[in-house]
Amino acid sequence: MLPRLETFLQSLTPNDWIAIAIVVLLALLVLVAAIRIARRRRPPPGPPVPSAEIERELTGGPEALPPPSARLPPPVPPPERVPAPPPRPEDLRAAREAEEARRKEEYRRKKEADRLERERRQREREEDEARAREEAVRATREAEEARRRDEEERRRRAEAEAGKTLAAGLEKTRGGFMARLNALFTGGKLVDDGVLADLEEVLFTADIGVRTATRLLESARERVRKKELADPERLKAALREEIARILALDGAPAEARPLEIGAARPWVVMVVGVNGSGKTTTIGKLAAKLQKQGRTVLLGAGDTFRAAAGEQLEIWAERVGAPVVRGKEGSDPASVCFEAVQRGAQDGVDVVLCDTAGRLHTKAPLMEELKKVKRVIAKAAEGAPHEVLLVLDSTNGQNAIAQARQFHEALGATGIVLTKLDGTAKGGVVIGICDELKIPVRYVGVGETVGDLKPFAPAEFVQALFD
Ligand SMILES: Nc1nc2c(ncn2[C@@H]2O[C@H](COP(=O)(O)OP(=O)(O)OP(=O)(O)O)[C@@H](O)[C@H]2O)c(=O)[nH]1
Ligand SMILES: [Mg+2]
CA 453 to CA 320: how far, in whole Å? Predict the structure, then answer.
């Protein structure tokens, strides 16, 4: 074999060798080109290939991989473009119809959605309107209720301010003593001894006091005897006249004589009476009245017997907006009144109303204590007290007359307030008081509210009793 190869090699001409060299060179070039193509088509990077392996691949080592052309998948030829066949007219029509149907459906759905939305909005609007209507109805109802409450409150306040009428306050007396008196004069019966005996009984049980009852009866008897009054109506008129005369203190004007505020400042009013007769309440009502007339008022809490008395006066003071001078519980009532008058003078107040106790905690008798208060007040301001107002509870009937006498003797009352006429049938007591004491009744109390203190006008009083 070798000798043959030798002879073959020797037989080669230089041109053959050149040809062989060219062939080898070409082969090498093809190999390099193949490697490059293989690299370009390599799959996405995987785990790094060890450099030794690459070496092997290049050098064609013992485990040389098959040529790259063999390892790589053959390149995918681009899809061959098949020209679409021209659409058929029926397909075109079907597509158009389908598109149209789709649009119609879409339109229908949109319309339906719009309709539902419109309905929803309408419903909401209606609900809103119904709510607004309900709200308006409620607001109107509430406004109406508030208006009615306001009106009721105003009416109540106006009523309280105006108070009961005298006739309403005298309702019980009219139904008691006066009803019995009036009954004597009905039926057209001529006045005889029988009628006079009945009149006597009515008068003596009418809480007007024995003295006054006797006076009225004697006057009636006298006129019947003189044949002046055989007609019961005339007897009634004569009685009415006589009562009016007594209430007007025998000749004084029949108009009201309420508290008069003189020139002195402060004008000091000392209010006295037994416990529970209505002193503190009367002071409150009076303060309201005076303030309404434009007077400035100061209250002196001279009832130091119990704390509640001072508090009660303070409540009234607050209600009418008047200042109050208070002492400690148990302190000397005279010194509290003194301080009140002094404060009134310093502050330029028009009227000082001094409350006093109806019962005392000291051993001193009430009258002595009140006399002392009066004396001390006199030291605080010249001429004071300018009025000693005696408050009498009409429900006490004839006892009120006895009290009036006692207080008047001790303190020299200058005016009387007869309270609680609304709660008693013993209103006739006022006739006895006027007849016996000849002190003007300034006011009558016909209830507990601020307007229930009425100036006492004899003519009006008689009318309220008889008519
Ligand atoms: N119905 C009615 N009650 C009245 C009247 N005046 C006073 N009262 C009531 O009588 C009660 C006693 O009244 P007060 O003012 O506390 O009597 P007071 O004289 O100050 O009594 P003391 O402080 O205890 O001495 C209270 O409940 C008042 O509301 C009136 O004219 N009519
Ligand atoms: Mg009191």
Answer: 15
